Amino acid sequence: MLATDCGHTSGAHTAQLISTTHHPSNSRDAPRRAFSRFSRLTTAPPVHRLEHRTVKELQRMSSNDQLLERITSMVSQVLSEKGMMPGKPAGSGTACSLPHGMAAAGPANGTSSDPLVSAGAARVGHAAAGAAPPDSKCATMGQYIDHTLLKPTSTDADVIEICSQAREYSFASVCINPSYVPLAARELAGTNVKVCTVIGFPLGSTSTETKAFETRDCVAKGAHEIDMVINIGKLKAGDFQYVCDDIRAVVHASQGRLVKVIIETSMLTDDEKVSACILSKAAGASYVKTSTGFGGGGAEPEDVALMRRTVGEALGVKASGGIRDCSDADAMIAAGATRLGASASVAIVSGKKGTSSY
């Protein structure tokens, strides 16, 4: 099962949920495969078993949206099974639960009693971070770009330069490593450009306590947006409760700032991408994000489309890694991205092609 109370994991059951065997990249079949694996959990306690008739009916469903809704419904059931008590992730101050404002309620006006189903699998969570631009010409891309500088060799002068570029081209934010947050905050003071930083970057394997501390420290020093890396190994091992707690701890530590969850799509099966997106919603994140740019792969339109189909309009979707020109950016927006992470930002808005690998 995905989680029981964001503090205790049923290891024997969770380890079987998502197969780590590679599947051919077929985004449209991913929700069906994810549900198929969930429904085959024969060792789970009786309360988690689905009626055989229901499984057969779901297997005949042709709509991936319906399957996503059912998967989300089951996630909701498992997360709320023990009243979301009592396990509190270290540093979070609250147990991982349904998204804020989605507390369970009885049926009203003929709607489902499940709050996630009532809202729709594609419409649960925080408000989407803007719609795709009506005009995807290069010059209009700036407001969707997180102008990014995350190389370990970056200097103060480099940070000052990208802040100057961000002011000139009205980028959404600059995304820099935590040590440069105070400098970027000073450089961008009085502008509409936000300061974005990364947490648990780039591997995602630091402890939850460390991620929460990093987040609080960056917020105190001027960060407006937080891009955190999911614990990839825990996701692959089926320890979804840990993953949910980990995200939730950062959301709580962010004190209301935007939190983008980097799921590192190049390392995941489609099933795992769907699960990561659902867990990000349940933990209260604002966005899901494709890549760190340091994990051996970047954003792909197919992954963006799958993430968008999973979260719907509920969360923002950030495409990052390998976006080098206006054509790349336009493809990501067409697939459903509402934010772009790029270091070739100036080239993108200028109609040129960048050379950076991020």
What does this protein structure show overall?
Helix content is 38%, strand content 10%. With 358 residues, the protein is α/β, with parallel strands linked by helices. The chain has a single domain, classed as TIM Barrel. An eight-stranded parallel β-barrel has the order 1-2-3-4-5-6-7-8, surrounded by seven helices. Strand 3 (194-199), helix 8 and strand 4 (225-229) form a beta-alpha-beta unit. Helix 12 runs parallel beside helix 13. The chain is globular. It starts with 10 loop residues before the first helix and ends in a 9-residue tail after the last helix.
Low-confidence stretches: 1-5, 7-26, 34-63, 82-93, 98-136
Distance from first to last alpha carbon: 35 Å
Strand order of the largest sheet: 1-2-3-4-5-6-7-8
Report the average pLDDT across residues.
76
Helix content: 25-40%
Overall, the morphology is: globular
Secondary structure: elements and pairs:
Elements: H1 11-14, H2 30-39, H3 52-59, H4 64-79, H5 115-119, E1 145-149, H6 156-169, E2 173-176, H7 181-187, E3 194-199, H8 208-220, E4 225-229, H9 232-236, H10 240-253, E5 258-262, H11 270-282, E6 287-289, H12 301-311, E7 316-320, H13 326-335, E8 339-342, H14 345-349
Parallel strand pairs: 1-2, 1-8, 2-3, 3-4, 4-5, 5-6, 6-7, 7-8
Helix pairs in contact: 2-4, 2-11, 8-10, 10-11, 11-12, 12-13
